[in-house]
Amino acid sequence: MEREWKCEDPARRQAWSAAINETLRVFEGKWKIVIINELMAAKRQPLRFSALEKLIPDVTQKMLIQQLKALQQDGIVHRTVYPEVPPRVEYTLTELGHALGPSMTALIDWAELRQLHAQAPAR
């Protein structure tokens, strides 16, 4: 969807700002973006909790649980518990989570562009 940035309606622009702020709130926390990236890289295949722990070695188990719960509450991650002993828990991105793909790509592109500008000699 192409956004018409030259909007003359201040209320509309404020609504856009509020929507962006609420979206960024969903990503607050050191590990949420890392978790989303790992689930995105899984290409719609579920990841077990233990696999996420191995993929993100610096996160504590408690923090991983908290961040996954928050992402689940925000509709980004789906959690499936299988009635086995011991219980098997798997995580996948929801359709809403997968819809983040283009935005995440755009943010990566912007971050790389920003790094290039930071490395460029001052004029």
Automatic annotation (TrEMBL):
An example molecular function term from Gene Ontology annotations: DNA binding
Transmembrane spans: none
Domain called HTH hxlR-type: residue spans: 7-119
Coiled-coil residues: none
Keywords: DNA-binding, Transcription, Transcription regulation
The protein's name in its UniProt record: HxlR family transcriptional regulator
Lineage per the UniProt record: Bacteria, Pseudomonadati, Pseudomonadota, Gammaproteobacteria, Pseudomonadales
